[in-house]
């Protein structure tokens, strides 16, 4: 299959898109985040300079916010992981989210549907740390109830 060389296609691959459809073309998954720009350029059939310029532009425009390493969920610097479902009271969503984002042990926060309004991913080193975080979260005005599950293993 011919690889597209348009501005959008270069962006898609450099952005790390899993699968970006274009009329008549698909840019496939690029699994190696450490691949040199020259390898990306070769895969797209563009010059290394073109690929580097586009990458620089995506960073400058804030499309790419940073670069990171993904590790298996069971190999983690924080040994205890938990999911906390949170039910809010009234119209407190914005204030509660702001308070929760200020807690460094909450790695990610998601809105959801159903009986719960938010799901917090928590990572701590010890059970007493988890207990402290749960108490901190439960004391935030606007949280009606919560339920927490400790993640035992990842499959």
List the helices and strands and how they pair.
Blueprint: H1 7-15, E1 20-22, E2 25-27, H2 37-44, H3 48-60, E3 80-88, H4 93-101, E4 106-111, E5 118-124, H5 127-138, E6 143-151
Antiparallel strand pairs: 1-2, 3-5, 3-6, 4-5
Say what the CATH topology of the largest domain is.
Alpha-Beta Plaits
Helix/strand class: alpha+beta
Taken in chain order, the helices and strands follow as HEEHHEHEEHE
The CATH class of the largest domain is Alpha Beta
- Residue ranges: pLDDT <50 for 5 or more in a row? 1-10, 15-29
Distance between the termini: 35 Å
What is the total domain count? Answer: 2
Beta fraction: 15-25%
CATH superfamily of the largest domain: Lrp/AsnC effector binding domain/regulation of amino acid metabolism (RAM) domain
| Strand line-up of the largest beta sheet | 4-5-3-6
Q: Which CATH architecture of the largest domain is right?
A: 2-Layer Sandwich
Q: How helical, in percent, are the residues? A: 25-40%
Total DSSP helices: 5
Report the biggest beta sheet as strand number plus sense, adding barrel if it closes: 4 strands, antiparallel
Our Rg estimate from Cα atoms comes to 21 Å
Q: Roughly what is the average pLDDT, rounded to an integer?
A: 78
The beta-strand count equals: 6
A few lines on this structure:
The protein is of the alpha+beta class. It has 5 helices and 6 strands, in the order αββααβαββαβ.
What does this molecule look like?
By secondary structure, this protein is an alpha+beta fold. It folds into 2 domains: about 5-60, no CATH class; about 80-150, Lrp/AsnC effector binding domain/regulation of amino acid metabolism (RAM) domain (Alpha-Beta Plaits). It has 5 helices and 6 strands, in the order αββααβαββαβ. The strands form 2 sheets. A 4-stranded antiparallel sheet has the order 4-5-3-6, covered by helices on one side. The chain has a two-stranded antiparallel sheet with strand order 1-2. Helix 1 (about 5-15) packs across helix 3 and helix 2 (about 35-45) packs across helix 3. The chain is elongated, with a radius of gyration of 21 Å. The protein starts with 6 loop residues before the first helix and ends with a strand.
